[in-house]
Write a structure and sequence with these properties.
The chain has 3 helices and 3 strands; from the N terminus they run βββααα. The longest helix is centred in the last third of the chain and has 17 residues. Helix content is 46%, strand content 20%. Helix 1 runs antiparallel to helix 2 and helix 2 packs across helix 3. Strands 1-2-3 form a 3-stranded antiparallel β-sheet. 23% of the residues are buried. The chain has a single domain, classed as Arc Repressor Mutant, subunit A (Orthogonal Bundle). The protein is of the alpha+beta class.
């Protein structure tokens, strides 16, 4: 399922990934390059499987681990109210 950030979440790319600002709480989240790749894939309309494939192509990780990591990241972003 494509991902989008909540209306009150700001993003900024950095040399080390992406920083998210939850304007409601003032909390910052820092995404490493792997998480940034996942988010970019999902925001572009890809599904979780496409994001896992992108990870396995870019990094030395198994498909099983990539799927688990993508699922965990999406769950954390949704649970934190950052993504819908």
């Amino acid at each position: 399922m494509p991902l989008r950030f909540a209306a009150d979440v700001s993003t900024a790319k950095t040399d080390y990934g992406t920083v998210l600002l939850d304007q409601r709480s003032g909390e910052y989240w820092e995404l490493n390059p792997t998480a940034t790749l996942v988010v970019d894939t999902l925001m572009a309309g890809g599904d979780e499987e496409a994001a896992a494939t992108a990870i396995t192509e870019a990094f030395d990780v198994t498909a099983e681990r990539a799927r688990a990591d993508v699922s965990a990241l999406v769950e954390q972003l949704r649970a934190g109210g950052l993504a819908v």
